[in-house]
Amino acid sequence: MPITDHEGLDALCASCGIALGYHDIRGQWHEPGVEVKRSLLAALQLPVNSDDDIRHKLEAAASRQWRHLIAPVVVRRQNEAPLRLTLTLGINQTDKAINWELCTESGQHRQGEWNPGAQAAVDEAVVNGTRLRQFEVVLPDFDEVGYHQLSVKADNACAARASLIVAPETCYQPPALANGRKIWGISLQLFSLRSQRNWGIGDFTDLHATIDILAPLGINVLGLNPLHALFPHLPENASPYSPSSREFLNPVYLDVEAIDEFEHDPEVKHQVTSREFQASLQALRDLELIDYREVWGLKLQVLGALYQAFRQQRLNPDSIRLEAFRQFQQNGGQDLFKFALFEALQASFHRQDAAVDQWQKWPQAYRDPASEAVARWADEHGDEIEFHQYLQWNAEQQLAAAQENCKRHGMCIGVYRDLAVGDAKSSAQCWTEQEDYAPGVGIGAPPDDFNSNGQNWALPPLKPQSLRDQAYRPFINTLRANMRHAGALRIDHIMGLMRLFWVPPNCSPSEGTYVSYPFSDLLGILALESQRNRCLIIGEDLGTVPDEVRHALESNKMLSYRILCFEKDWHRGTIKPPADFPYYALCTAGSHDLPTLRGFWQESDLELREQLDLYPSDESRDQQRQIRQRDRLEILAALRRENMIAGEDTNESREGSDFSSELAQSIQRYLARSGSMLLMVQLEDLLSQTRQMNVPGTIAEYPNWRVKLSTKLEDWRDQVDLEGFAIAINAERDN
After folding, report:
1. CA pair distance 142, 549, nearest whole angstrom
2. Distances from the Cα of 488 to the Cαs of 179, 507, 558, 581, 676, in angstroms?
3. 39: which strand partners?
4. How far is 85 from 160, CA to CA, in rounded Å?
5. Domain that holds residue 416
6. DSSP state of 218
7. How far apart are CA 689 and CA 414, in angstroms?
8. Residues near 118 by Cβ (< 8 Å), separated by ≥ 6?
9. What separation in angstroms does the CA of 478 have from each of 321, 423, 429, 474, 482?
10. Which of 69, 80, 568, 581 could bond to 676 as cystine, CB 3.0-4.6 Å?
């Protein structure tokens, strides 16, 4: 039966947060088609195939806010005191006292009563034949920050419970950054580090050594790529932004030889120190690109042996190390157990049949984590599950030690971690929490200056209502996991707290539209976890970002993300002067998705995109080259205005592609002189590397996330004047 009630369809979409249109980065208006709207509604478990379907679901949506005596979760800011709540009562309940009891997170109990009949209702409706009224009530003299439980009882029978989350006014600001102090740091891709001792990929011990080398330069921050767990059985799936779980770490970063059992197991030690094994390691070190398959193969082989050695400690009930592991398991609870269970199941099925490379291909009985088959398997394969808990435990220990090393060096922030926007559809997270995700839909971005075709990252979005139904538990857990052992957290695509661009199944990104999320609630929780974990928040706000998001970043004392070539006076086309950069911002010359500074200047990225046929047309290619030429000239002009380079000649042919270490340092000094709180220098730029880490829009066409740095960390001081660079930057940052 065809749908003719387009107004009703639009009303249903709006009630679910599906945008009926949006402005792209150039201000053009785009509207999703009818089939796109239906597809997204179906992903939200609201399929509509007729006008009657629309009418019934609209009625259900309209009654949603009237279904509960009090909303199941309420998020309020501490500065909103007195805390106001909404009660929904039947007409026969309005003249009676409503009793409430509050159990605070600190263990205190408070109680009282409300008399809603003494005031006017704020709203009224008839739902399923029952007249209901809503009243605003106040929770008196309460502003304790935290997670609390509120119980409400009407007629001594109608009880309701709500999670009451009271959040601080802003996110955490390190005391060292009071009074307008400005600091700087260096960002790196951990996997890209070369060293004389690693196993062909950067690891946590390399991170230690990096801190020892760079901290004395005066940096206060060391930025890392996402450390999320990926897919050991599919080592070529190397993107840290398409993880299996954002709550757990990638064991590939483990320094195997730094694990306690290695030192005390002569058999494993003999294996690793053998000539054959060392030759394999040296071959991996010598490669220009990371061979993830071989790296994982060697590491898992030895890690399995170390776990077997660790199991022997069960025979010693007084083992301090075993006791610490048991505590780690207990603290991780069901989330850790389910993740390890997934890892063990996936490894087992893949060993039996390499074609079974995602949980959607597992035998049907195992696709449901609550099934009897899964429970039986878990009972019979406890050691296989525990092995993956053992890997997580050691990874946590090694990352924690790196952050402690930052503190020993006096860094006021230390490690800054990076949180990806979502989990892959074949992820552990999507297996364990299937009902929370919109099936078939991909998170992405509309066409913009980063990608003229738009993007579909193939990450299934969390359903907004599922977040609310769980009192935001998935969001809270993800924040806590990524704030551990970190002084700052960069949140990729911070706009996702307000809205995400959903691309329906079998559609191009240009056909997608935005879906809204409970922005105010998520911001409040972010502020609460930031303060509790003493973690500075950086919001990556590039692309098509509403003004509301950038205002929220500033008012919540989160740092915006500012890249030099995008910081322009768009009327004049000139680069902003340093003084015009906002204080609550991270400024930088580039990112993991952009060319290195040298590559940008020499247009190697544009040449690469042409080779890979990533331009939609010759006109687009030529336009990008013209923009790049203008950008170079504008950067040079900006440097001259700040007296950082000499001369007045703007001849394009002479200045077009010349690049020197002096020019590179001048650009970094320009950013260092800015008013922004934090300057981040990419390690690739410090080492004058040309090749970029990731080319958006490519998968197999380019070796994304495999490029190593050209210089071993032991040789950095010989290859680069680190001290001279640091003196120049510190002079500009000193305020």
Report:
1. 29
2. 19, 37, 10, 20, 16
3. none
4. 13
5. 175-301+388-733
6. T
7. 24
8. none
9. 27, 11, 11, 6, 6
10. 581
pLDDT score at 65: 87
Q: Which helix (H) or strand (E) holds 480?
A: helix 473-483
Give me the helix-helix angle, 292-311 and 266-273, nearest 10°: 160
For residue 612, report the phi and psi dihedrals to the nearest 5 degrees.
-90, 5
My answer on whether 476 and 421 are in the same domain is yes
Tell me the pLDDT tens digit for each residue of 244-288: 999 999 999 999 999 999 999 999 999 999 999 999 999 999 999
CA distance linking residue 594 with residue 563, whole number of Å: 10
Judge if 616 and 553 occupy the same domain. Answer: yes
Number of other residues whose CB lies within 10 A of the CB of residue 515: 23
Kindly state whether residue 350 falls inside one of the protein's structural domains.
no
Between 212 and 118, the higher pLDDT residue? 212
Provide the pLDDT confidence category of residue 449 given band limits of 50, 70 and 90: low
Q: What pLDDT sits at residue 319?
A: 87
Cα gap 460→433, rounded to integer Å: 12
Whether residue 670 is predicted with pLDDT greater than 60 in this model: the reply is: yes
Is residue 533 assigned to a domain? yes
| 85 and 232 together in one domain | no
Do 88 and 66 touch, CB atoms closer than 8 A?
A: yes
Give me 224's structure tokens: 């890392």
Give me the residues paired with residue 185 across strands.
Answer: 221, 680
Identify whether 334 is part of a domain. Answer: no
Contact between 151 and 86 (Cβ < 8 Å):
no
- The whole-angstrom separation of Cα 424 and Cα 460 is 7
Output the six-digit token pair for 154: 């009407």
CA distances to 202, 207, 701, 722 from 719, in Å:
19, 19, 31, 9
Q: How many CB atoms lie within 10 A of CB 728?
A: 16
**Paired tokens of 276:** 């054959």
Task: Say if residue 60 is in the same domain as residue 74.
Answer: no
Distance of CA 710 to the CA centre of its chain: 28
Please write the tens of the pLDDT for every residue from 689-709.
Answer: 999 999 988 888 999 999 999
Contact partners, residue 617, CB within 8 Å, separation at least 6: none
72 and 61 in a common domain: no
State whether 147 and 215 are in the same domain: no
Query: Where a domain ends, among 134, 167, 200?
Result: 167
Report in angstroms the alpha-carbon separations of 7 from 16, 50, 182: 14, 13, 52
CATH number of the domain at 140, please: 2.60.40.10
Q: Sorting pLDDT into bands at 50, 70 and 90, what band is 457?
A: very high
End position of a domain, from candidates 115, 142, 167:
167
- Name 395's Cβ contacts closer than 8 Å, sequence gap at least 6: 204, 249, 250, 251, 253, 254
| Spatial CB neighbours of 266, under 8 Å, sequence gap ≥ 6 | none
pLDDT over 70 (residue 657)? no
CA distances, 469 to each of 18, 84, 463, 545 (Å): 18, 21, 10, 27
Which residue did the predictor score with more confidence, 4 or 390? 390
The mean pLDDT of the chain is 93
Beta bridge partners of 92: none
